[in-house]
Design goal:
This protein is of the alpha+beta class. It contains four helices and 15 strands. Bound molecules: magnesium ion (MG).
């Protein structure tokens, strides 16, 4: 399975990190070893001094395909969940300055956390906006609404499929809203879709 991620998909988040609003989706990938599922402990990585959370809606790919047109893209995902695209922001800053690839900042082991709860998509809820949020130590630090995405789920899936084949079980992290920030050992992160709790993760 592959893990795709979209960068800078919410205007307010692009701005908070001083990035331009992209003209096409910014895509990067994490390896399978990055995946961390609920009930597995998360340990603060030794190589960073600035670990950031980025809460994101994650799509689950349900059909193999490539070169998918935008108007057909919704057939290729059938559920979503909530995850965190953990980022070593200090390392990313250094790599960005040098124009180097981001893997050491974004694709390390356990950097792609995901809840084990999924919401199945159907005709009734496919186009509904999804509200989601992240609490850090019981305080809301990020809240997003998928209607504010620069590129829609269909645009993202179509765009990715022009370059990479999509396979059943692949995941797509669809971008983070504004409010990213640092987390420290001892922090408690809780993710919500609407009012419903999707995960509870302790940083060790
Ligand atoms: Mg992200």
């Amino acid at each position: 399975m592959k893990i795709f991620c979209v960068g800078r998909n919410y205007i307010d988040h692009a701005k908070e990190l001083g990035n331009a609003v992209p003209e096409e989706p910014v895509i990067f990938m994490k390896p399978k070893s990055a995946l961390l599922q609920t009930n597995t402990p998360f340990y603060y990585p030794a190589f960073t001094n600035e670990l950031h959370y980025e809460v994101e809606i994650v799509l689950r790919i349900c059909k193999n395909g490539r070169s998918i047109q935008e108007n057909a893209a919704s057939q290729f995902y059938n559920a979503y969940s909530l995850g965190i695209d953990f980022t070593a922001r200090d390392i990313q800053g250094e790599l960005k300055k040098k124009g180097l690839p981001w893997e050491k900042a974004k694709a390390w082991d356990n950097s792609a956390f995901i809840s084990n709860k999924f919401v199945e998509l159907n005709e009734a809820n496919l186009k509904s906006p999804i509200l989601f949020s992240l609490k850090q130590n019981e305080k809301i630090v990020q809240s997003g609404n998928t209607k504010d995405m620069i590129f829609s789920f269909n645009q993202i899936v179509s765009h990715i499929s022009m370059y990479f084949s999509l396979n059943i079980g692949d995941l797509v992290y669809t971008g983070t809203p504004a409010g990213v920030g640092e987390c420290l050992p001892g922090d408690k992160l809780e993710g919500f879709i609407g009012e419903e709790a999707f995960f509870n993760l302790d940083i060790k």
